[in-house]
Amino acid sequence: MEGIVPDKQETVSHEPNFQKQYLEAHFSKKGRAGKVVTLIKGFEGETENLKELAKILKRTVNTGGSVKNGEILIQGNFRDQIIEKLHAMGHEVKRIGG
Asked: Is the pTM of the predicted complex or chain greater than 0.85?
């Protein structure tokens, strides 16, 4: 077989398949100098999968964030957009707080 070149119009999903998760979406500014962050809690699984999910969510809302203590922190109040993305990925998300 000679070098087979894949068709350039072929689309490949770069989002991994996660197991269905039951997550909570919070927002908080406590202990963050008044700056609001969106918190995603309740992820069960490996840390690498949590980091990959955080990367997808940060890319969805075009902002920064991090993973700390098993929680995803996204800079800014993007709860609605993040909940919508998580639902599209097949997760159950409960909105917590204001």
From this structure: no
Which of helix, strand or coil describes residue 56? Answer: helix
pLDDT for residue 22: 93
Residue 86's CB is within 10 A of a number of other CB atoms, namely: 21
- SS3 breakdown of the chain: % helix, strand, coil, rounded to 5? 25, 25, 50
CB-CB neighbours of 69 under 10 Å: 6
**Measured between alpha carbons, how far apart are the two ends of the chain, in Å?**
60
User: What residue ranges define each of the domains in the chain, with the CATH number in brackets?
Assistant: 22-95 (3.30.780.10)
> 60-75 pLDDT, tens per residue?
999 999 999 999 999 9
